[in-house]
Amino acid sequence: MLNIPDIVTNEEIDCFFHTISANVKRIREERGMSQLEVALSIGQKSSGFYANIENYKHGKHFNLLHLLKLSKLFNVQIEVFFKRQNNNTIKK
What we know:
The protein is mainly alpha-helical.
């Protein structure tokens, strides 16, 4: 039997996805764009699903293709989505 260690905890995963979501939301708001505008720009059909991703609700999160498209849309380097901000706290 294999002894496979846990590499990250569920809390670390939640923190990771929350950080990304909070950064995307912050940048979207700084750009004065609506959730619908951004959702349609990255190929989502509605703002409802996008809102769940942006707010990290129901386990929905951005994938790498979303982040690539968002970085182009917002004209930022993709790594800015991964940087923790002082006000990025985990919401449960």
